[in-house]
């Protein structure tokens, strides 16, 4: 039975999402990724770029929730409305960062998740913190919103003259990227990230999320890594991440874990590899951890 009964507003949920983006950016050390002490494998962005980008997205995050709360039509219609707003958010983000893509993938996923959250709040009038079941309902609604997305977005790619790197990876390897993750209801979050966070909800938060990042890097299909280094580079990063998970656990020395991740960061910087897909899923993990009151 829930012990807390807080009214839920779109601003509250939007703030959770903004905090999730900021928490992800602030987590240190993150191999190949931007954090407060390292630019990772990036020469065109730093920690402050992510702060600027996150705060620019902030009003849109709340608007995504509002769209869901007010929506009366089908899941497909909500997706169309959210995608239109998401494109405006992306333009605002790129204008703020001088064209640097900091949160394109995260913006796409948060648009879906936040609007679905708003819709569930409207229909079920639930309160904070969410239960595991209520979180699952959000993912189920995202699946309804994005049903057929891959087929629609990737239709007739052979005829297109200019492909995005996501489209190129789909054509060359059949990799579905974040679209596939969304259309499947974010199985990585449901089967890996959230069970891990629920299990270790009483553990030290910083160490827990560093280990979660490694869990994500060891398991997901990261199109950012594949685009930068190819299939073999991606597989090697997965292997290295898994090896670190064999060495470190929730009870390990935080200092030793950080030292190992700093060395991993230097290795990825040398070969220009950044696990951006894992970073986006880590931010979503922070969001759902807040929604469920895990930390």
From TrEMBL:
Domain of life: Bacteria
EC id: 2.4.2.52
Keywords: ATP-binding, Nucleotide-binding, Transferase
This protein's record includes keyword Cytoplasm: no
One Pfam family cited in the UniProt record for this chain: CitG
Enzyme type, top EC level: transferase
GO molecular-function terms, A-Z: ATP binding; triphosphoribosyl-dephospho-CoA synthase activity
Alphabetical list of InterPro entries matching this protein: CitG, TriPribosyl-deP-CoA_syn_CitG
GO biological process, one term: prosthetic group biosynthetic process
Catalysis performed (reactions): 3'-dephospho-CoA + ATP = 2'-(5''-triphospho-alpha-D-ribosyl)-3'-dephospho-CoA + adenine
Family note: Belongs to the CitG/MdcB family.
Name of the protein in its database record: Probable 2-(5''-triphosphoribosyl)-3'-dephosphocoenzyme-A synthase
Gene field: citG
């Amino acid at each position: 039975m829930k012990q807390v009964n807080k009214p839920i507003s779109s601003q509250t949920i939007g703030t959770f999402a903004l905090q999730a983006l900021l928490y992800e950016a602030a987590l240190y050390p993150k191999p190949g990724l931007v954090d407060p002490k390292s630019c990772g494998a990036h020469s065109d962005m730093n920690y402050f770029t992510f702060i600027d980008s996150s705060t620019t997205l902030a009003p849109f995050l709340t608007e995504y929730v509002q769209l869901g709360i007010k929506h009366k039509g089908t899941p497909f219609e909500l997706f169309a409305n959210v995608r239109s707003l998401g494109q405006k958010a992306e333009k605002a983000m790129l204008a703020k960062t001088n064209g640097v893509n900091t949160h394109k993938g995260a913006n796409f996923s948060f648009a879906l998740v936040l609007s679905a959250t708003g819709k569930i709040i409207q229909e079920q009038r639930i309160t904070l913190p969410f239960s595991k079941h209520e979180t699952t309902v959000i993912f189920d609604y995202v699946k309804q919103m994005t049903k057929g997305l891959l087929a629609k977005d990737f239709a007739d790619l052979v005829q297109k003259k200019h492909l995005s790197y996501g489209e190129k990876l789909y054509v060359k390897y059949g990799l579905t990227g974040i679209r596939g993750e969304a259309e499947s209801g974010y199985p990585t979050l449901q089967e890996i990230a959230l069970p891990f966070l629920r299990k270790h909800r009483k553990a030290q938060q910083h160490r827990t999320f560093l280990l979660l990042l490694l869990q994500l890097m060891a398991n997901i299909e990261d199109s950012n890594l594949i685009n930068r280094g190819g299939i073999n580079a991606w597989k090697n990063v997965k292997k290295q991440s898994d090896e670190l998970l064999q060495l470190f656990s929730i009870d390990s020395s935080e200092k030793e874990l950080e030292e190992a991740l700093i060395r991993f960061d230097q290795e990825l910087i040398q070969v220009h590899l950044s696990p951006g897909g894992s970073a986006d899923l880590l931010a979503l993990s922070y969001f759902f951890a807040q929604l469920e009151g895990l930390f």
